[in-house]
Structures are given as structure tokens and as C-alpha cells.
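On clarity, I found the account of how folds are encoded harder to follow than it need be. For illustration, here is how one protein appears when written out as sequence plus C-alpha cells:

:::
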Amino acid sequence: MSLAAAVIVGIVDSIQSVAGETVALTPFGAALFSINPQILVTTEAYFRAHISAYFWDTAMEWLLLQPAVMVLLVWSLIFWLVAYKREAPGRFAAGSR
């Protein structure tokens, strides 16, 4: 899902860049706000109450200012790395006994 969202955001950004004759990159926070305006307020309240206000002020605000396409691509890469399973070597693989 995050890879598909990254492709969609990348296409929208490239269309806006061509139309405006300048590089246009949508920040991750603006992309989230356009989907659901309440999600940022709810997430901030949760982080400040349960995790750390310092973490929100440093890491999360930095993340929300990054280009959405890059955040979503990194997120999909992390999902892929976690879910990737190496194929077991076959019966006739070299060096297997």
C-alpha cells in the first residue's frame, strides 16, 4: 500500500512540477492533512501523552516536513525488508548437505 501511495504522490508531484515549471514536493504532513485533518492532532496528542513530547518535537516534526514520496518509499522498503524471506536452497544446491 505504501509503495502504491508513493507512486501516486510522485505522479502528483511531477505533474505539479511540470505545470508550475518548478520542483514541487509535497511534505508528508501536508499529504496526511489532505487525507484526514484530524489525524495529525490525534497523533500528536497520543505521542505527547504516551511516548514523549521530545520525540514528537524532534523526530516526528522532522518527518512531517520531509517529501511524502521519500517517506513512503522508505516505509515500503522497511516493510519489504521485514517481510522478505530467503528461499531455502534446493536439494541440489552447491554446498548443501
